[in-house]
Amino acid sequence: MDINMFQDALLSWFEAEQRDLPWRKDQDPYKVWVSEIMLQQTRVDTVIPYFHRFIKQFPTIKALSEADEEKVLKAWEGLGYYSRARNLQAAVREVHEKYGGKVPSSPKEISSLKGVGPYTAGAILSIAYGIPEPAVDGNVMRVLSRILSIWDDIAKPSSRKIFEAAVRKLISHEHPSHFNQALMELGALICTPTSPSCLLCPVREHCTALHEGTQHELPIKTKTKKQRNVQLAAAVLADDQGRILIHKRPEKGLLANLWEFPMVEINLAYINEKEQMKGAFHTQYGAQAEIDEMTGQIEHVFSHLTWNINVYKGRVKSLNKEKADLKLVSMDEMEVYPFPVSHQKMFKQYLESEK
After folding, report:
1. Catalytic site residue 97?
2. Whole-angstrom Cα distance, residue 188 to residue 101?
3. pLDDT tens profile 287-332
4. Domains in the chain: how many in total?
5. Whole-prediction pTM
6. Which of 16, 62, 180, 230 is the right S-S partner for 135, CB 3.0 to 4.6 Å?
């Protein structure tokens, strides 16, 4: 491969065809950082409105570092993978305190920040600081596996080193920011997982897979393990004053620190689901509850498991006492608390049922 010709073709295409994305308006390291964390496991179209709202609410390193975590999670509500938001804020606080609010520009320092892996570090260093560091994500691995005919399994963490080494050989030292973004853009728009648009590809002359007819076989990627199904039941419970009972999830683990409606795992060996719920709500939350009709069913898919939730509404007859992780809140106050998507859907079903 003629590397200079490859670089020229890729960069010319990117400069002409790049999407108008808000984090490309300037090279602010903080905005690049926020966008890259949001884009992990989330589509660009989904991220754009979240990015605008997040930056408006937390426009600077200082603003995010000093924000209440609950407000940050509320701003992240609906994006999922909430540990990303918590890690981002923890790392931003370190930047504020240790580096005077300036995102570090050395690979060693930036990689030491919480939640900043090799890809995010490379993206910030190359896009914001113009440092020729590789930023290897799934798009980049797919593109390079085809161009260079790399048959290593991209699902294996060890394969990343192969692709990072490839980027180091190919990257433009004059335009590392555009080069890395161009590889990502090529994977997103042209060199897609299925049915790549090879005839429209600006670097098709350099693509080994196209010449060998293997573009539909690459990349090699083993399938992930089958998800575990969990049967759950949840209830939106109101007291005599119309306040809703909500519970804060633990500080660690799945959906940490988010709020939810009382929810329990159901033993399918027992027929009476409502009785199981009443017993579990009393044991877990200290709540005596009446369970009324079902308002709907929700399936929520995580990377490793699927929640199948039967959703009910009901009434709180008595509550032992409110604790820090258990509150009765008014309808207006509900707006303040961050909920996972599944529980947002539950509340929407509840409101529909009350009309």
Report:
1. no
2. 32
3. 999 999 999 999 999 888 999 999 999 999 999 877 779 999 999 9
4. 2
5. 0.85
6. 180
**Same domain? 106 vs 250:** no
Q: Is residue 34 part of a domain?
A: yes
Q: Which of 36, 77, 133, 273 is catalytic?
A: 36
Domain of residue 267, residue span:
228-353
Give the sign of the dihedral formed by CA 82, CA 85, CA 86, CA 91. Answer: positive
